[in-house]
Amino acid sequence: MPELKTCLLSSLALPLAFALPASALEFKLGPLEADLTLQADAQGAYFDDGVGDTDTGSNIDWTVRFNLERILDSGWTVGLRAEYSDAYDTDTDVDGPNSKTELDEIYVYAAGAWGRVEIGRQDGPADTLSLHAPQVGMGQVRGDFARYVSGPASLSAYDSQNEPKAIYLSPPIGGFRFGVSYGPEMRVNEDDPNPLRRTIQDNHVELAAQYQVPVNGVVLGVSGAYVHADADAATMHEDISSWSAGTELRWQHLRVGGAFVSRGDSNSFAGRDEEEVNLGAAWLEDRWSVAASAAHIERSDLSRDLAGIGGTFQVNDYISLSADVVGFTDDYTMGPSESGFAVLGQIRLSL
Description:
The chain is mainly beta. It contains two helices and 19 strands.
């Protein structure tokens, strides 16, 4: 049964961000198998904010992941997974869009030949099944640079993040798989004094599908996703209505992928009509990986171009090093253009 479990879980969880594996403490709790991962990142950046100023910034991040599971006599795998991560901005003058974030995931799951069900706080299928520009280490155009300058690419549809939901993921059948999720409410920054930063959406639904086929040693994949939710009238924001279509090519160590994303006016206050095209490539080795990606974003008030390159290297089982260089140009409809860059470095300790 362990071989069946490994095959099934790997087939139902396509990685979207390529990163070298972290170490984990594995142990048994009676009939249950458990693993615990502790991770800490120290990050520094040198950046030009696009208005003629250069500065430095730094962040300290930490993450704890815990997984507890059991294989039943029926062949089902059942378990509980929890994750908590926190990011601390060590510079009070740096307040990028992703600084001081807290992300919680906790959900129960069951998997078998019929597929996989997850219930709790977890990313939905619009995120996990969507193909797009690959990411390595710090993420390139959808990465940590956005803590310091500009804003990140979406890569896929506007999804319900890790808000509470029920998820079903089908097993792969002839290279095809699909997923669906439903959640009663989505609450992000609902107490923020700035109403523009509040997200209060109800009845969020995600639908996603993916198809992969091998052709002469090359694996070709396509994906599609759709997300809808109903905005709370008190916020005066728009409903979430977003979709994306992506593709990926895999050949040995090479990954090439891209996507078109339509976010429309999703959760916007005054209408944004946002669309994005992203494209990238990655080369993945056992101890190191590199990637390059680019994105063009159009919305009612802004045209944004992003380009980035980065890599990661596993020093040993406990230490990895990552670096990114990302450049941006923000062309505002009602203002001057801004161009700048961010150079980031990071050391990660894992146990």
